[in-house]
Amino acid sequence: MDMKEDGRVRLNVGGQLFETSVFTLTRYRDTVLATMVEERWTSTQQDQEIFIDRDPTNFNRILNFLRDGAEFFIMPKDDKTVEELRKESLFYGITDLVALCDAFLAPFQVGDTVGWRPEAIPLYWRSFVRYMVDDTLTLPFIYDRNNHILAKCIACQEFQDPKSTYLVEINYLDWEPMKHHMEIMTADIVEMMGRCCNVSWDNGQQIHLPCSALRRASPAEER
């Protein structure tokens, strides 16, 4: 069939139009999209659409994976979207993307690179600032008992006595940019502790956190 790799292909996915190149759609062979183009498209059909009866929500991500490959693809940051992306990847037969989704959804292990879940940042940022400011803490969740400051994990029984009898005064307004920085921070898991883990940030500081506050970093974020 007459095909040019730089030829443009219009796809109507569930009523939403996408336009890409033959090269992108055939970059990964033996996929539904590659087969569809090879069997149903010629260079004389650039103004025609190929209709695909699927939900278009994640199709941009499908195309970005085909364009960028696994090394540079930015994974979504929430499990629900990754699960939906995995389902679409299975339909299109893009096995490398299915494997990437499976790795993202797998339980954490020592050595994994992780980041903050977006929905956790508004809940954790003040505690995280306190941990950053007070280097006696490895647990950022503190409370006062009989005028003595103690720390305890909110998800397990881990407990710390920082040997401190005072609270470091923090002006949280000055630290609000931390919320933005937390969106791009990554850390390595150095110890698994049931539902929690100890992670080491780029500056060498370690902190104990519930796994539910963290997400697996994509390969592009680990670069």
UniProtKB/TrEMBL annotation:
GO terms for biological process: protein homooligomerization. InterPro entries: BACURD1-3, BTB/POZ_dom, SKP1/BTB/POZ_sf, T1-type_BTB. Gene3D superfamilies: Potassium Channel Kv1.1, Chain A. Signal peptide: none annotated. Residues 7-109 form the BTB domain. This is BTB domain-containing protein. It comes from Mesorhabditis belari.
